[in-house]
Specification:
The complex is a heterodimer of chains A (358) and B (244). Chain A is α/β, with parallel strands linked by helices. Chain A has two domains: 3-128 and 307-343, ATPase, nucleotide binding domain (Nucleotidyltransferase, domain 5, 2-Layer Sandwich); 136-305 and 345-353, ATPase, nucleotide binding domain (Nucleotidyltransferase, domain 5, 2-Layer Sandwich). Chain A has ten helices and eleven strands. Chain A has helices spanning 50-72, 91-108, 117-128, 168-178, 185-194, 219-231, 235-265, 280-291, 304-307, 311-323; strands spanning 3-9, 14-22, 30-38, 81-87, 111-116, 136-141, 146-153, 156-162, 269-273, 298-301, 343-344. A six-stranded mixed sheet of chain A has the order 10-9-6-7-8-11, sandwiched between helices. A five-stranded mixed sheet of chain A has the order 3-2-1-4-5, sandwiched between helices. Mean pLDDT of chain A is 92; it is low at 354-358. Chain B has 244 residues and is of the alpha/beta class. Helices cover 33% and strands 26% of the residues of chain B. Chain B has eight helices and eleven strands. In chain B, the strands form two sheets. A six-stranded mixed sheet of chain B has the order 3-2-1-4-5-10, sandwiched between helices. In chain B, strands 8-7-6-9 form a four-stranded mixed sheet, with helices on both faces. Classes of the chains: A alpha/beta (358), B alpha/beta (244). Chains A and B meet through strand 3, helix 1 and helix 2 of A and helix 1, helix 2, helix 8 and strand 11 of B. Strand 3 (30-38) of chain A pairs antiparallel with strand 11 of chain B, so a sheet runs across the interface.
């Protein structure tokens, strides 16, 4: 009898459900279906409106789950367990998914597991690559997070560095707004940057903290773009070069820190996760530069639909937690600031304090 | 109305559940404090359902307080109901949460005008006025977003009592309107019990035709939506949805 796990994700503005099927909790499951419903309503606001996101989740979630079950060819009676994002994220949005998931589990006498959204991103490449397993270094970059982690084993995480201000994806969104592009900003900037627009070095923006350890800072870069936009006498003509210059700066910082983390830890694999990891430019740059390191690390990155917020990664992380014998009870609650279980702070790891090798 | 029904109301700080064969409740439970709702709602449901020996899928249906009230509170009750109802395709029916609150006071006062007011912040309440009779509910003022003084001006009669957290929050205005002290919800039977009692009464309950997409009556748009619509002079466009 196969084990079937239903995953649910509502941490921000994607309503998502997925079904994993496996031949035993200790083995690697297969992705049977993944449905992601994006809430386009936020585009007119240039960012996610939490109350509207919460309302949309409630109106959409049951149909999204039905679609996931139908696509997987699975009946309700076959579902053994439910995994749901507990946090971090928008608390109102999380609450809808958590309470709904608890009710589904209660109604069918199923096991329930609350999942940390960040741990879900770490598991995302493992949804497609059953062989992927720690140890590895992970760079999680999204609209809400910019984290460098050392992962010696599933469930054990060492914080190497994080952003001191804006998340990388947040910087993309804000710069996209400055350039008059749509929301979300990352895909729009990547498309525009790929168009070229003359001399790629026309706008060279600073690389904040590039020579300092494993921490990040993007707010100054955003301000530099603002000054360049204000100084431009023909923004329409400069827009592509500005996008290119900004993207080059962000990706250079991200990959430089990732290189440093790989060198410091000696890991042979670097996982990219989060919405910004949908960027082909980031994956390509990271793969090229990490392959040139002495330990020739390889980059593992999931396909774009598994890097965006999605329920498959939540289900995969939940699957692992259930396999460890963990389960949540009916008092499971959403937490906007849910800490990553098993995370050691940056100060306990020497790699976070290493100087730049140059 | 056949079989055992579950009732849920979470429109205010007081979330309540009840189980019974309408109009009678066999068991009820509640929790006070909005921050407890999400954590406790399933535990409350289990608390009233487990002693009956009836499994969720064997229920006759689920009755919901449909607001208006706390946005988050409403969603918690509705998310629970949708999750419980989905697998077995249970019927969902709704009763205005304000009506359930007024019905609690009607048990004590009888068929007289009773106003229910829930705090809507920014100096306003969600308010309504009802006469709860044994066979029919008379809605004298439907759920309205207003100040207490505005409600007093719009209501066709002076209520004998005003119940709810909106009433206690604006006690002086309520005293002026009704001539009586406000009645806290905590002094009445839990709203979920009243929902079961009202389910068969004319003028009380509505059916949900599409439980999957149904939403509660929030009572006001999201603030960002209201500002956008005021700025653009037109309704927020309905989002086109894309799925993969």
């Amino acid at each position: 009898m196969a084990e079937v796990l239903l995953g649910i994700e509502t941490s921000c503005d994607e309503t998502s459900a997925a079904v994993l099927v496996g031949g035993g909790w200790s083995g690697a499951p297969e992705l049977a279906s993944l449905i992601i419903l994006s809430q386009d309503i936020h585009q007119v606001f240039g960012g996610v409106v939490p109350e509207l996101a919460s309302r949309a989740h409630l109106a959409a979630l049951p149909a999204v789950v039905e679609r996931a079950l139908a696509a997987a060819g699975v009946s309700w009676s076959a579902v053994d367990a439910v995994a749901v994002t507990q946090g971090p994220g928008l608390v109102g949005a999380l609450l809808v998914g958590v309470v709904y998931a608890k009710a589904l589990a209660y109604a069918g006498g199923r096991r329930l597991i609350g999942v940390n959204h960040l741990e879900g991103h770490l598991f995302a490449p493992a949804v497609e690559d059953a062989e992927l397993a720690p140890p590895f270094v992970a760079l999680l970059v999204s609209g809400g997070h910019t984290l460098l982690l050392d992962v010696p084993a599933w469930g054990r995480y060492r914080l190497l560095g994080q952003t001191r201000d804006d998340a990388a994806g947040e910087a993309f969104d804000k710069v996209a707004t400055l350039l008059g592009l749509g929301y979300p900003g990352g895909p729009a900037i990547e498309r525009l940057a790929a168009e070229g627009g003359g001399d790629p070095a026309r706008f060279t923006f600073p690389r904040p903290m590039i020579d300092e350890g494993l921490e990040f800072s993007f707010s100054g870069l955003k301000t530099a773009v603002l000054h360049a936009v204000r100084a431009s006498t023909d923004l329409a003509a400069d827009r592509a070069a500005l996008a290119r210059g900004f993207q080059d700066a962000v990706l250079d910082v991200l990959v430089t820190k990732l290189e440093r983390a790989v060198e410091a830890t000696g890991r042979r694999v670097a996982v990219l996760g989060g919405g910004v990891a949908c960027s082909r430019a980031l994956a390509a740059l990271a793969a090229r530069r990490l392959a040139n390191l002495p330990n020739r690390a390889r980059v593992a990155v999931a396909s774009p639909r598994l890097n965006a917020d999605n329920a498959a990664m939540i289900a995969r992380a939940g699957w692992w937690r259930l396999a460890q014998g963990e389960a949540s009870d009916w008092t499971l609650d959403a937490r906007a600031d849910l800490p990553l279980s098993g995370l050691e702070p940056a100060t306990t790891h020497p790699a976070s304090r290493i100087p730049h090798p140059s | 109305m056949s079989g055992l029904w579950l009732a849920i109301d979470s429109a205010t700080d007081l979330a309540s559940v009840a189980v019974g064969t309408p109009p009678l409740a066999r068991g009820a439970a509640f929790v006070q404090g909005a921050r407890q709702h999400a954590a406790q709602i399933l535990a409350l449901i289990d608390q009233v359902l487990a002693p009956t020996g009836v499994r969720p899928k064997e229920l006759g249906g689920i009755a919901l307080g449909d607001g208006p009230g706390s946005f988050t509170g409403l969603r918690i009750g509705w998310a629970a109901a949708k999750g419980l109802a989905q697998e077995a395709g249970l019927s969902l029916r709704t009763v205005p949460s304000l009506m359930a609150a007024a019905a609690g006071a009607a048990r004590l006062l009888g068929a007289v005008p009773i106003a229910a007011c829930f705090d809507a912040l920014r100096g306003q309440v969600y308010g309504a006025v009802y006469i709860v009779r044994l066979d029919v509910i008379e809605t004298l003022l439907p759920p309205t977003l207003a100040t207490i003084d505005e409600l007093a001006a719009r209501a066709p009669v002076r209520p004998r009592a005003v119940v709810g957290d909106g009433a206690t929050h604006y006690a002086a205005e309520v005293q002026r309107w009704s001539g009586a002290a406000p009645v806290p919800l905590e002094e009445l039977v839990p709203p979920a019990v009243s929902i079961l009692a009202l389910l068969d009464r004319k003028g009380a309950a509505g059916a949900i035709t599409d439980p999957a997409t149904a939403e509660p009556v929030y009572g006001r748009p999201a603030e960002a939506q209201a500002k956008w619509e005021a700025r653009h002079g037109r309704p927020l466009p309905h989002p086109s949805r894309r799925g993969s």
